[in-house]
Amino acid sequence: MILDHSFPREAERAQRENIPLVIPAGTVEYHGPHCSYGCDTLVAEGLIKELMKTKEIMLAPTISYSPSSYAVGDDKSGTVHVEERAFENYVYYVFMSLLSAGYRNIYVVIHHQFEQESEMPMTLCYRMAAKRATMAYLEKTLGQGWWGSESYANYYEQLEGDNNPFNWIKVIPTMSTAVQNATGYDHAGEFECSILMALYPDCVELDRIGERPHWFTKSAERANAELGEKMVKLSLEYLDKAIR
Questions:
Q1: Rounded Cα distance, 171 and 23, in Å
Q2: CB atoms within 10 A of CB 136
Q3: H or E stretch including 41?
Q4: What is the CB-side half-sphere exposure of residue 184 using CA atoms within 13 A?
Q5: What's the whole-model pTM score?
């Protein structure tokens, strides 16, 4: 199911049956002369669309403009960077709306600055907004002091269960640390270009690498669809287990 194409009946079934609502999260970021600006977004979106072939998911609209940072290219490079505090507040309202609508199984799947599942600004924005929204929603619906009320006396017993409100929104990478270790992870190099080639072959032009030489793009000469397909396969195996 695709949220943009859905009607209330489909949305209500997704909420009632706890079908995962998945938000692909990416950037508009400079990836050298040979790799498209939407690389991060397309990898996240492409993997979820592949996963939808075997797993029932409610695909939410992709969030693309984000805190990409100007670490790779400056503000003339074509990168679109949204300041972190503004972005966190934006996604906070997205999460509040989804929780208010009745969704309780929300995933944000990120492909940007997530080497070894490190906590970088964009990921932290999503995670902070998720906790803020959850706390605000609980207070709005249950009132102040909800946690200390007698109705939550079994809070710690259900902490790891599906009813734990702090599991309602989960922020995960497209590629776990184990998948990255089994294949590789980089920016616009051999690995990122390979997985993008496997998902969107028209978004990589290896013959353009020399147009603007960068240290981080040299390895892209070794990029190939076979490696990309392996990366896709392992990523899908991980995502299938992570998204429940």
A1: 9
A2: 14
A3: helix 39-51
A4: 17
A5: 0.94
Q: Are 30 and 215 in contact (CB under 8 A)?
A: no
Superfamily grouping for domain 3-176+234-242:
Creatininase (3.40.50.10310)
pLDDT tens track for 136-153: 999 999 899 888 888 877
Beta bridge partners of 67: 81
The three-class DSSP label of residue 146 is coil
Map out the domains of the chain as residue ranges. Answer: 3-176+234-242
Tracing tokens 């991980």 back to the chain, one arrives at 238
- Say if residues 188 and 209 touch (Cβ distance below 8 Å): no
Q: Residue 42: in which H helix or E strand, if any?
A: helix 39-51
Long-range pairs of 137-145 with CB within 8 A, sequence gap ≥ 24:
137/96, 137/99, 137/100, 137/165, 138/165
